[in-house]
Predict the 3D structure of the following.
Amino acid sequence: MTTHLFICNPSSGRGLGERKIAELKDLLAGSDIRGELHITGKGGEGREIARREATNYKVIASLGGDGTIQEVAGGLAEARLNAPVPHTCEFASLGILPAGTGNDLTKAIGIPHDLSRAFALLMAGNRRDMDLGRIRWHVADDEILRERIFANNVGLGFEGQVGWAASRIKLPLRGMPLYMLALLRVLVKLTNPDLRVVLFNGHELTGPALLLSIGIGRCSGGGFYLNPDADPFDGLLDICHVKKLGRLQVLRFLPHAMRGTHGRFGRRVTMRRDTLLDLYSDTPCHGHADGELLGDRITEARVVILPGILPVIC
C-alpha cells in the first residue's frame, strides 16, 4: 500500500525544487517508504491534489517553498473543514521537505533545510497538531470575497509591497539577498497606508502604518523576525503593527526586525496576540500570505486562527 504522497513544485526556490526532486527520488529508493510523486505544473494545483487525496494517504508531503506548503496545508485543512461531523475516515498528516526561497515556516517548527535530514524526520513520523490561519479579504472596486488558508504569515503594507517586488525580480537570487533587493526598490516609493485594525479583544490600532504582520510562524521574508515569539502550536495569532516611518527610519528599523528586537523600537511598534482581527484601509494596500500575493489594492480583511487543525510531522 502506498502511504505517502509527495506534492513537488519544480519551480520553487527559483529552480531549486527541480534539483531537490531528483534528490528525493534517490532518498525514496533507499528507504522503506512507499511513496508517489506528483509534480505540479501550475499555481493552486497542490491545494487541489491535497484536498482530493486527503483521505487516501497517511502522509501528504510538500516539497517546495512556503507557498507550496500553504497550498498543501490549505488543501488538507479544507478537506477536514468540509468533511461531515463526526469524521468517518482518517486524514493525512502534513510532511514538509524545504526547497524554497525563504523557507520561513520551517524555522518555527524545527525542520532542517538539508533534504536528507528533513526526509529522516519525515520517516520518524512524530506529529504535532499545528495552527493555520485564514484570511478573507476584499480589494478596491470589487465585491468578491476572497479566501486563503495560510501556514506562516500574512503581511500587509510594506511587507506586502516587498513580496510584490520580490516576485518581479528576475535575477537568480533566493532568501535574504532577494528580499533585500526588493526592499530597497520599495523604499524608493515608500508608502504608509492609512489602516484601522480591530482585534477581537477590542483593542484598536489606527492611522498611517508602515506594515501589519500577522504570524503563526516567527519569520518572514527569508530572515525578518517580525513576530519573534510566535508559536505555531499555541492557538494564537501574533501581530506586529508598525506606525508610519520615513525612509531613514525604515533603514534603522530593519536591523532590529532581522534580530527580532524591534519591539524595543519605541511607541511606533505594537506587538499583540489574539485569535481574530479585522482590517480596514482607506488607502488600498499590498498584501501577501506565505509569500504568495493577495493583491495590491486590499481595502478590508478578516484574519482568524484555526487552532491545532492540522497534524504536521516535525
Notes: The chain has a mean pLDDT of 94. The first helix runs from residue 16 to 29. The chain is about 30% helix and 35% strand. Helices lie at 16-29, 45-53, 66-82, 104-109, 115-124, 158-166, 175-188, 247-259.
